[in-house]
């Protein structure tokens, strides 16, 4: 494929809106957000869309993650597009393959796959006011009026900085790079990490491996996953009873946001309720006091992301499973050596060690006005204006950007609201012949000041733990208010926070 386009072809294009032409919009990433953006933009009459996807298939995190036991801890009827409810979800909390299939089905139905270039990673984005020059990994160059990064939050695997990691003689891989070609049956397996991913994997593989060592650095709080298989009758009702699916969606949203979200955001009563539930769950599930003590965190529930998983504790108590809480000293060819000088011999080592959470669109090089690099703008910690835009980076939007609503709700729901905001901004550009839009520096600073002030009240900050929510400055890099507030802000953007610039229309 050769998409090379001479820049001159577009000059002096300048203000698309003033010229009355369609804006050329690049969308980077074909996961839930990118596909949602393609669909919503097209519905609103924006048709010059090109989506760049680095992988050979669409799907984002639901393509990358396909480990055993993968499921979503947000209820399916809420973790789906609002414009495409799915009466056929088989479970209250869907498993990974079903979610991925749903995304593909929606992409097919709305015929957006034709807009997607697969195997086409973007390496470089350069602002050449008022447009963006986009370079792909193949060296092709294209010019766009607007860029929407839909590159996800937890994308690049974090590999643990443990001495000797590469010296392991057996097989090892990260949870997000699962080896479907290797059977774990009858093998001695070790897993490093005890976050949501590890809990799901442990529950799924404990029954088939010969032996499983679970290496825990810090215990996490768990609660039961109230999983439920939906009956055919229920699914029939969902399909035919008007308003039922919508009512369930709203109820699930309300429930999540009035329990977990409030518990996290300083509502002490709710926090105590969640705390009590987690403690009771641990007591009921783990009768052995010695094991229970090793599984009891010394920080508040909801400080780290609370894990919903019903088969982790039972799996840990199987005869072929051991919880190892001694510090890992190093990885040796035979396995994992712990601080008690013991070598835990393994055939396979699984790394469920999370993601590089500060990357977002990086390592794609993004250069804004006056040569400002996004990586430098984010030097201390990634920040954004309303988790969506950046001063100095005009005509550039990032869905699920830094300081977004990452906890206690559906990311699909949040990104849909962000897309609505992007469309409102583009509509205004069109109506007023605007060529350049970016948040004002003072609006960005005021917003981030308010966030820093209020995030200090959340259990992410006060709960006494270390977590992936904390950035390099030790501040939770996450939205400090209820998701409802964010949705309202997205639906009613305050245009005074943005710099809208008209440019003279060049005569060709
Ligand atoms: P998480 O939640 O970041 O968990 C990573 C786990 O790996 C966690 O238990 C870490 O221990 C552990 N870890 C990381 N580095 C090391 C080293 N060097 N040594 C030992 N243990 C280590 O990632 P997940 O993939 O489980 O979940 C990520 C999100 O995906 C989740 O929140 C959902 O939103 C979906 P720690 O607790 O830091 O001591």
Offer a concise description of the structure.
By secondary structure, this protein is of the alpha/beta class. It has 16 helices and 21 strands.
Describe this structure in words.
- The protein has 508 residues and is α/β, with parallel strands linked by helices.
- The chain has 16 helices and 21 strands.
- Strands 3-2-1-7-19 form a 5-stranded parallel sheet, with helices on one face.
- The model is unreliable at 1-12 (pLDDT under 50).
- Bound molecules: ligand NA7.
- Ligand NA7 is lined by residues 154, 160-162, 175, 192-198, 217-218, 305, 328, 352-354, 466, 468.
Helical run tally = 16
Uncertain segments: 1-12
User: What's the shape?
Assistant: globular
Biggest sheet character: 5 strands, parallel
First CA to last CA: what distance? 29 Å
């Amino acid at each position: 494929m050769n998409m090379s386009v001479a820049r001159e072809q577009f000059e002096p294009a300048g203000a698309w809106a003033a010229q009355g032409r369609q804006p050329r919009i690049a969308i980077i990433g074909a996961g839930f957000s990118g596909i949602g953006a393609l669909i919503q933009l097209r519905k609103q009459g924006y048709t010059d869309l090109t989506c760049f996807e680095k992988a050979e298939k669409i799907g984002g995190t639901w393509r990358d993650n396909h480990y055993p036991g993968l499921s979503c801890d947000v209820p399916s009827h809420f973790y789906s597009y609002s414009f495409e409810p799915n009466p056929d979800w088989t479970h209250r909390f869907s498993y990974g393959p079903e979610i991925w299939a749903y995304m593909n089905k929606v992409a097919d139905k709305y015929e957006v796959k034709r807009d997607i270039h697969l195997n086409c990673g973007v390496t470089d984005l350069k602002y050449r006011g008022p447009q963006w020059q986009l370079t792909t990994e193949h060296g092709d160059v294209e010019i766009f009026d607007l860029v929407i990064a839909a590159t996800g939050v937890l994308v690049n695997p974090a590999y643990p900085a443990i001495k000797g990691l590469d010296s392991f003689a057996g097989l090892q891989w990260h949870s997000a790079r699962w080896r479907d070609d290797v059977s774990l049956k009858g093998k001695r397996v070790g897993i490093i990490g005890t976050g949501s991913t590890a809990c799901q994997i442990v529950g799924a593989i404990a029954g088939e491996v010969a032996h499983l060592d679970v290496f825990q650095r810090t215990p996490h709080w768990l609660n039961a996953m109230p999983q439920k298989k939906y009956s055919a009758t229920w699914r029939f009702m969902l399909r035919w009873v008007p308003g039922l699916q919508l009512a369930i969606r709203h109820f699930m949203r309300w429930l999540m946001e009035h329990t977990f979200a409030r518990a996290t955001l300083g509502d002490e009563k709710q926090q105590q309720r969640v705390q009590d539930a987690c403690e009771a769950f641990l007591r009921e599930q783990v009768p052995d006091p010695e094991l229970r003590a090793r599984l009891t965190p010394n920080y508040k529930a909801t400080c780290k992301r609370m894990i919903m998983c019903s088969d982790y504790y039972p799996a840990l108590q199987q005869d072929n499973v051991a919880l190892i809480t001694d510090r890992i000293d190093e990885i040796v060819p035979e396995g994992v050596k712990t601080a008690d000088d013991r070598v835990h011999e393994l055939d396979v080592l699984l790394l469920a060690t999370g993601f590089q959470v500060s990357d977002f669109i990086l390592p794609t090089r993004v250069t804004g006005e006056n040569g400002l690099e996004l990586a430098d703008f984010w030097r201390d910690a990634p920040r954004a204006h309303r988790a969506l835009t950046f001063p100095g980076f005009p005509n550039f939007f990032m869905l699920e950007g830094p300081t977004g609503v990452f906890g206690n709700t559906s990311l699909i729901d949040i990104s849909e609201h962000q897309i609505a905001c992007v469309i409102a901004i583009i509509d205004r550009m069109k109506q007023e012949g605007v060529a350049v839009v970016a948040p004002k520096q003072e609006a960005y600073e005021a917003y981030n000041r308010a966030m820093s002030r209020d995030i200090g009240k959340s259990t992410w900050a006060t709960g006494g733990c270390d977590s992936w929510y904390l950035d390099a400055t030790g501040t939770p890099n996450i939205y400090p208010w209820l998701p409802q507030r964010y949705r309202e802000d997205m639906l009613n953007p305050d245009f005074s926070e943005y710099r809208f610039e008209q440019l003279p229309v060049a005569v060709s």
